[in-house]
Amino acid sequence: MKTFRATTLTETTVSTDKRRFQMTFVDADGQEHAVSIPSAIAADLVPVLEAVAASQPRATGGEMTRVPKTCAVGHATGDRMVLLRFDDEAPYAIELEVAQALAEQLQEQSAELIDEPRPALH
Known about the structure:
This protein has 2 helices and 6 strands, in the order βββαβββα. It is α+β, with helices and mostly antiparallel strands. It folds into 2 domains: about 5-60, no CATH class; about 70-115, no CATH class. The strands form 2 sheets. The protein has a 3-stranded antiparallel beta sheet. The protein is extended and about 50 Å long.
């Protein structure tokens, strides 16, 4: 059996009947792989994953990242809060000044990346 070397966790879902848990991963080549397991096995994995996570240093470069499929921005009614929603999750309410700083940081980071070539995939 060939090992799939995931670099990013892109989605987690639970079936409507709560009997299965699915995780979708992407590797360095952009290939996706979904794993669907019964909820009982997912529960059995909790202590294993906790032990592995506890033994690893929390290095920023090695953390799994999430890639949302959708995002939306809005504002709260009657409040000076900007709302930021990823996928179907509850929105984040961000104070106006923090939202403005975040917008500036997003612009700066995007500007740095725009002229960079895409990284070579191994």
